[in-house]
Specification:
Rna Polymerase Sigma Factor, Chain: A, 8 helices, elongated
Length: 188
């Protein structure tokens, strides 16, 4: 197997020097992993798409702060996490307001079921959000997005044992927090 022509750090250094083609190569290589990192925070496809695009725009704007002597992927994933975290905070405020409107307008065959389902979704989301960031991210990337521990480890700049431990602790905590709601154990 041949060695790549340029390392990620080489390409990033070329981007710092103004080479747009190098940035295009990095963006193409990291599009899927960036999507996965963002999807560990967000669920709506449009929000994920927008945040991925914003991540690459921010990375290009902030490329001067990247140190080519360090690995590129963790730096880019941190940009993605920051963008996703900010988007999530915005959506949380907006969704809270919308949920209140749905509750007020609930009518139909069984408005109680609609509210009950909405409450359950809210409890699950709250339980996931209450997890420490590393556990939450590992859980979403592994159990929701289907990435392998080794892939997640590379994305997050940690070893795969740490990823497996974070997933395990996240599942255990979610089972504990959601036990009163009788959610199927296989779900977690």
């Amino acid at each position: 197997m041949s060695k790549p022509e340029f390392t990620d750090s080489d390409l990033a250094a070329r981007v710092q020097a103004g080479d747009n083609k190098a940035f295009e190569l990095l963006a193409r290589k990291y599009m899927r992993p960036v999507y996965a990192v963002i999807a560990s925070f967000l669920s709506g496809q449009e929000d994920i798409d927008d945040s991925a695009q914003e991540t690459f725009l921010r990375a290009l704007e902030k490329i001067h702060s990247y140190n080519p002597k360090r690995p590129f992927a963790p730096w880019l994933y941190q940009v993605a996490r920051n963008v996703a975290r900010n988007r999530w905070k915005y959506l949380k405020r907006r969704n809270h307001e919308e949920l209140e409107e749905v509750r007020e307008e609930a009518h139909g065959d069984d408005p109680g079921k609609l509210v009950e389902l909405s409450e359950l979704r809210s409890r699950v989301a709250e339980a996931i959000e209450a997890l420490p960031e590393r556990q939450r991210t590992a859980f979403r990337l592994h159990d929701v997005e289907g990435f392998k521990a080794t892939e997640i480890a590379q994305m997050l700049g940690v070893n795969d044992g740490t990823v497996r431990a974070n997933v395990h602790h996240a599942r255990r905590e979610l089972r504990k927090r959601l036990a009163p709601y009788k959610i199927d154990r296989d779900f977690l």
